Amino acid sequence: MLVDEWIPGPRYARPGMTREEKGNTMPQTITRGIKALIDEANAEIETLTAKDAIEISKNGDVVIVDIRDPREIERDGRIPGAFACTRGMLEFWIDPQSPYAKPVFQEDKKFVFHCAGGLRSALAAKTAQDMGLKPVAHIAGGYAAWRDAGGPVEQWEPKKKG
Questions:
Q1: Quick check: 78 pLDDT over 60?
Q2: Main-chain phi, psi angles of 139, to 5 degrees
Q3: Is residue 73 within 8 Å of 156, Cβ to Cβ?
Q4: Which 8-state DSSP code applies to residue 31?
């Protein structure tokens, strides 16, 4: 039987191929979904309200870490002075033994993570804490909550190539 809908499989899969042709005969069984991971992270890390995050951001001992994708930052704006670190590079930038390590993560400061809505930043803060970075926290509701609570924001444009 041919399958009309897209089914994840090898890169060479084409529309019209059977499941067997695509090598997709056994479905995956996810044992810990994203809700469980986020719940576990929130149970182990400090979560700040946007109002509290705005207040402590005025302290020179805090680094706001924006883990959103650059396209999100360009589209929605950013928190002035926030350090941009995409979620995909977080572990590499934190680890001082990594060739990609960023000096900001070696500073003796509190690291407050945020994403767009507070889910990815919970996972990022837990990962950072698990790696030994401390103290860490994340902003409940993310950038949207920060903006809605009256926190300062600014537009950002990527550097022009050339």
A1: yes
A2: -95, 120
A3: yes
A4: S
Residue 145: which of 60, 79, 73 has the closest Cα? 79
Stretch (H or E) spanning 113:
strand 110-114
Q: Over range 141-158, report the average pLDDT.
A: 94
Share of the chain above pLDDT 90, in %: 75
Sign of the torsion angle spanned by Cα atoms 106, 107, 110, 112: negative
pTM of the model: 0.81
Output the DSSP codes for 17-29.
--HHHHT--S---
Q: Token pair for residue 7?
A: 């089914």
Q: Tell me the domains of the chain and their CATH numbers.
A: 1-30 (no CATH), 34-148 (3.40.250.10)
Q: Are 151 and 127 in contact (CB under 8 A)?
A: no
3-state secondary structure 138-152: EECCHHHHHHHCCCC
